[in-house]
């Protein structure tokens, strides 16, 4: 029997799905960092412009979005049987499939597999799933050194930092900051290193090339897994993925169970959607696909770790399960006015931005991330940008209803409901509302705790005449 178990949330104390502070507290600190805001505005504006231009080239973009959404919905509806089909085909091709119910189990599986090889270092191709579960920390605790090979991930790792973007983890850093990180933490770096981007890239390439050629175990993520053939796919822009997937003797892939697609032909849709929505490219510079083990060619041992870590619980929510359709393109981050001003660290999760505001609370349970569903203006830009039509604003509202509310707020809402349900009482309340002018301009004069409402909103001025008065006079 193969199964991931009953719906359960991602465990506490492991991984990177919960922040140390609420979003409002962390966001205030980020807003005070003017350099961070400049970096974010420049990067997101550039990506939006590139993406918009290449999307405009496709006359059937909206039809492609609808096809991607339909394929994801179909996959989620048949997920158990498709996962078993994937396992069967990976096994038939010489791979080994492991089922991990949560982060602790996934970390234990990967750590044991690396130990069995006798190696003490692994190379990694960018994988948000391994960041989600805190795999690097688990490997280091076992005496195994993980080396990130994606340039942005390497910058984050060398700087003892955290990723702040799904696609560009070091988006909050500029080139002078990157130079300082390389000079301080990169082995054998040229002391005369400048902040010219080609020079920085060349320094990283020299460091990584030696690492690629001398490391026998790799850990990867997966953008897609094809149930029909047992094939895994990674798309990237630098070639580091190709090196990780072909040079080592052992390859371990950690993949969230939602990354599945039913058939090989389904990639046609997603390989058009993903690059345009994410990097503003017509196609990925590197698309690597592999099926099991091929004798004499590439890794001779392949392990696939299928990760739940709260995904089954998300699937059980008829509204929230849309979040599992995400293909990690980051389009929603690049158009979000909140993310552009606060950056990713304020969200406290490896999944920042609008998609993180709906995915992270569902993986952990809303009570563990109660402020994230409110990290949005509900402007709807994320829904318009999403290549698979995830209705993020609707999920945000859905999760806000599940979030714990202060007793004061609950009492106020109950009083409002009681009043609105009684016409005479409501009419009296409307007349009394004229006294609200004493609150001053924008409601800044409201007493506690009501002034908390107007801290981030303007209190509408009550009209001089209510609709009831106007109607009665006519």
UniProtKB/TrEMBL annotation:
Q: May I ask which residue range the UniProt record assigns to the signal sequence? A: none
Give the source's domain of life in one word: Bacteria
Q: Which PROSITE patterns does the record match to this protein?
A: 4FE4S_FER_1 (PS00198)
* Classification via SUPFAM superfamilies: 4Fe-4S ferredoxins, NagB/RpiA/CoA transferase-like
Q: Where is this region: Disordered?
A: 441-474
Show the InterPro entries listed in the entry: 4Fe4S_Fe-S-bd (IPR017896), 4Fe4S_Fe_S_CS (IPR017900), FTHF_cligase-like_sf (IPR024185), Helical_ferredxn (IPR009051), LUD_dom (IPR003741), LutB/LldF (IPR004452), LutB_C (IPR024569), NagB/RpiA_transferase-like (IPR037171)
Q: Give UniProt keywords alphabetically.
A: 4Fe-4S, Electron transport, Iron, Iron-sulfur, Metal-binding, Repeat, Transport
Domain 4Fe-4S ferredoxin-type: start-end pairs = 323-390
Q: Compositional bias of type Basic and acidic residues: which residue ranges?
A: 465-474
Quote any Pfam family the record assigns. LUD_dom
Residue span, Lactate utilization protein B C-terminal domain: 401-474
Domain (LUD): residue spans on this chain: 83-293
Specify the protein name: Lactate utilization protein B
Q: Which organism is it from?
A: Paractinoplanes globisporus
